[in-house]
Sequence to fold (159 residues):
Amino acid sequence: MRSPWDRTRHAISFEFGGLALMSPLGAWAFSMPMSDVTVVRMASALIATLWTYLYNLVFDTINQRMTGGTHKSIPMRVLQAVLFEAGLLAILTPLMAWYLGLSLLQAFLMDVAFALFYVFYTFVFNWAYDRIFPLPAWQRSARSGPPPAGMRHAGLHEF
Fold:
């Protein structure tokens, strides 16, 4: 499992990358002032940073108990990204409606658009993060051949 420091680095780098990409894209896509989109995305990023840390800790704990390892297959990564975004949608939609003066439906549709972007971004970011910062057990198994039985489903051995 990842250390608290590694999870913190993961959560912060994920949110800064998402904010840098989504603020200008959101302002353009929704014809809103970039300042409004940036405020919403910054507040969302702060909330999502906490959600990222907690969600991935719980997800990895459950994954480890179910599979005996921390590697994730492509379908498991898709599930991880979709469940993450569904939870975040439920948290952020009312806040966006309030701040931007939108109806819940309008805020929901805007948040769905953001979420669709983030599903793709989450998948790519987490895959890249695991490649850049692999766990020591992954590095050892990559050098020594096929992974142990509990680690056969994903990670460095898929790509």
In short: The radius of gyration is 17 Å. The CA atoms of residues 64 and 70 lie 5 Å apart.
